[in-house]
Amino acid sequence: MKKQLLLAFLIIASVSLYSQKEANVWYFGNNAGLDFNSGNPVALNDGLLRTDEGCSTISDENGKLLFYSDGINVWTKNHELMRYSNGSLANNLQGNPSSSQSGLIVPNPEDKNLYYIFTVGTNFIGYQPYPDNPGFKYYTIDVSKGNGGEVISGPINLSNGRDREWSEKVTAVQGKDCKEIWILSIVQDTFYAYKIDKNGVDSTNPIISSSSYYLRDKRGYLKASPDGSKVALADFTNDGTGRLVLYDFDNVTGKVGSNGLILTNGPTDGSPYGVEFSQQSTKLYTSLYHENSNSFRIFQYNLLDANIAQTKTQVHQEQGYRGALQLAPNGKIYASIPDRTYLGAIENPEDNATDIQFTSNAINLGGTTSSQGLPPFIQSFFAPVKLIDLSSNEILNNTNQFFCIGETYTIVPEKNNPNDTYTWFKDGKVISNTRALAIDNINYGSGLYEIQIESNSYCKKTFTGKVQITFEPKPTINPILPYIQCDFDSNPIDGFTTFNLEVLENTLVNNLSEVTIEFFETSDTSFSSPINKNNYTNLTAINHSITVRVTNNITKCYQTDIINLQVNPTGLTSYSNEYIHELDQNASNPDAKFSIGTNNGFLDFSLKTQQIINNSGGSLSETTHDFQYYRTAEDAALQINQIIPPYEDDLFTNDSDVYVRISNKGATSCEAVGNFKIFVEKIPVPQGNLNNIILCVDNPRLNPQPHTTLLNADTGNATDTYKWYLNGKLLSGETSATYNANASGEYKVEAHRTHPNITSSFMGYNTFFVKESNQALIVNIKSLDDQDNPDNNKIEITVDGLGDYEYALNSTNLSDFTKGDKNLSYTFTNIPPGLNSISIRDRNGCGIVTSNKISTIYFQRHFTPNGDGHFDTWKVLGVNNDYYDVIKVQIFNRFGKLINEITDKNHSGWDGIYNGTSLPSNDYWYNAELIDSNGKVRKKTGHFSLLRK
Questions:
Q1: Helix, strand, coil proportions of the chain in percent (round to 5)?
Q2: pLDDT in tens, 115-146
């Protein structure tokens, strides 16, 4: 009945009080300091400490400074160098200002005068030579001696012979009780834990634990969680390969779990340097330096999550070098970036990453500057006393607790020592001196509750804790009518059926989104076994009662009431079946050429409701009853998956079952349940052809065009009617399954079908494409002959028509036709002398047309009368045919003397002999006149060569 709610603005409402004030004064950086004794930090500038990294400070239990150190020098509360017992100055401790955690001060658990400084060195300081790493050592200080303290012993070596390899990491945490403290450090892959008790540091019996992670570098911080359950280390490397690693820690035995959980991803995230836990040990933070972006980053991890690594979230980034993180007495975590005049702060470390508030300039350092380090402390200094609610054993600290009006709560601190003194405060006023405090909304009521415990045992410390409590009202449950359910299962008279209790939720409360509703048997007074609200069967026949619990999601306050369940033995009513047509898969595609049935369709259930009402004899109406439709009997019983408008979204296949639940208007009172089937009719499937259907027309095209091609769209159903469209325009009067198309275009056909049980007709459609074509019409023929090279003789033909034409010379064989680059013209070359013809074929199948004969002639340019069968005579080639009627060719020598005459077109030609004498090689002249059958005369004069070889 209460909830732990982490406030997103913990900066305003911090709810933890830290009584151990040993961490209230800090000295760090370049003469920087802070004093937390007033609650809010106040800048100090009286410190003498100047360090690049490591530093440590300790105060007494009242928050008064005792001494501070950089791991080499020790300064008293008077800001003077402390001395050894022999009088020499304590300015040579074996820490190092360039060591991440150069020194850590730890008090003796029982002797308030004794303190220990643990130092971890390194191999260099800045760019100056420095002795080899001195390793892990400690010194003992007695603050009762000297003027502010005296180093009475040390150094004591804790490195186990591994000085040079030792890391720059050290932390401390309380053991099983306030009598023991563990000091913890690491070298390479080995943790060393030394116990500190009233006898001092047990330096001879370290608890050694192996680590699954091997340090790549010595640098970076080591921290334990305030509750002593975890240890985290940052392995800082220049190349970014170091990681943040988290371990389990047993503060009773001092053992560190061997399997470290690696939480950062090398160069992608950056190199981790600072580490810190939140006060409640629920969150882990690391600061990283990302070299590529020269940025200072902070990541958060949720330690309560089962997969801690996956909770990695960056909560801050800004320009700057590496720096430390340190938890402070006020519950905030402060961040140091070198050479700044302020510290940054995580204001609300307990919150989830999305709610984290980071302030870059949270604390002004009063003219001093920060460096990389901040002073570490025993982490247990920051663990508050846990306050517990006895009724639930919940821990209340650090949260705004909601308690419920009308309930009484008992709060106790976790610590329970009969010798201790307990004082309770409410809003700053003392209200009780008992360990247990009983409160309700009348007795004390809402406010800030604090406890102060004065330990009278060996620890002699003051512990405190506090919690903000707000009393909130319980939820209101509206009046509940009986939930009456129809029994229409296999045994409708047994008094048992299923209920869907979830349908009641909207009527139970007015603010459903703000509450959680659960149902229980009335016998389950501990509310340990919620019943299945979505599918519940009554335990008692006919009438049964259950308990409803309504819980506020924020306050966790709850209210209960009783719900009466009743079973109505109705059975199952049968209603008339419904018929619908399937849908067209292409209905939404404007470019579709045919319909495709989906095998499903939808029903307008509002029409079904009217049908049921009309057949009820006046007993039903939409004013008095609700009608709900479902696909299954189980859905109807449980009132889940209801079919609701728009009904187009619910599609049904053939032979589907539907159940209708009828109940009184606005009530959970079931009156009847019935069912019917839905049958889905196929849409018509007319035939079509998306390939071009060729319509051969005349050339030239006649008007009107007498030729047609038959389009057959028959669906096979004689009762179907049809509509035809040409290029989107309705063809009036065309209603048969076939159509004689006499023009090219896109023909769409719709087949319409009626069904006796479907109100309107339904249709399917398809498409035919008709393309006109025809034989070619020869428009022009150009012939070029008698070329010096006969190969250059050519014929160019031009045609007109609608077809797709190919051409052949002197052939009509299909294999001889060739498709040219241009559809309506073609040029043949290398034409032989004589008569030639060109045939043109329509590739669409509308026929072949052949040209008239075309004459091609050739006047020989030479002849060689040597009897080899090649050009043995001279003549005009290509005239020995019917094309020419008259031929007259006269041959002259170079002096113009007629030496031969050819008048017969079939003449074999002049053989180079004149009057029986073979004439010599020379040029001879001719004069030719050719008359064709149309009387057209062709004349030519030229010369040729006689070559004797």
A1: 5, 45, 50
A2: 999 999 887 554 455 567 889 999 999 999 99
Confidence class of residue 227 from pLDDT cuts 50, 70 and 90? confident
pLDDT of residue 89: 95
Q: Which two tokens stand for residue 730?
A: 């309705």
Per-residue pLDDT of 323-346, as tens digits, reads: 999 999 888 999 999 999 999 999
In whole angstroms, give the CA distance from residue 230 to residue 282: 10
- For the four alpha carbons of 753, 755, 759 and 764, in that order, the dihedral sign comes to negative
Residue 901 φ then ψ, to 5°: -145, 130
541-to-12, 483, 497 alpha-carbon distances in Å: 57, 14, 9
Listed in order, strand segments (DSSP E) in 473-632 are 483-486, 498-499, 515-521, 536-537, 543-552, 558-568, 573-574, 578-581, 600-601, 625-630
Inter-CA distances, 658 with 594, 635, 646, Å = 32, 10, 17
Residue 13 has pLDDT above 50, yes or no: no
- Cα–Cα distances in Å, from 835 out to 783, 789, 879? 12, 18, 9
Cβ proximity of 45 and 32 under 8 Å = yes
Could you give the maximum distance between any two Cα atoms of the chain, in Å? 165
**Residue 697: exposed, middle, or buried by beta-carbon count in 10 A (0-12, 13-18, 19+)?**
buried
The mean per-residue pLDDT over the stretch 439-464 comes to 81
Locate tokens 């023009």: which residue? 743
In this prediction, residue 467 carries a pLDDT of: 86
Torsion of CA 247, 251, 253, 256, to 10 degrees: 10
Spatial distance between the Cα atoms of 901 and 880, rounded to a whole number of angstroms:
16
Separation CA 56–CA 106 (nearest Å) = 10
Given a contact cutoff of 8 angstroms between Cβ atoms, the answer to whether 343 and 355 are in contact is no
Q: Answer whether 501's CB lies under 8 Å from 536's CB.
A: yes
CA-based R_g, the chain, Å: 53
Strands 876-877 and 884-892: unpaired
- Cβ–Cβ < 8 Å for 57, 68: yes
Instruction: Say whether pLDDT at 667 is over 80.
Output: no
Strand order in the sheet with 333-335: 325-327, 333-335, 342-346, 358-364
Name the token pair of 622. Answer: 């939409």
Burial 252-273 (b: 16+ CB within 10 A, else e): eebbbbeebbebbeeeebbbbb
Residues 566 and 485: beta-carbon distance below 8 Å: yes
Torsion sign over Cα 389, 393, 399, 402: negative
Helix (H, G, I), strand (E, B) or coil at 899: strand
Angle at 904 between CA 900 and CA 910, to 5 degrees: 35
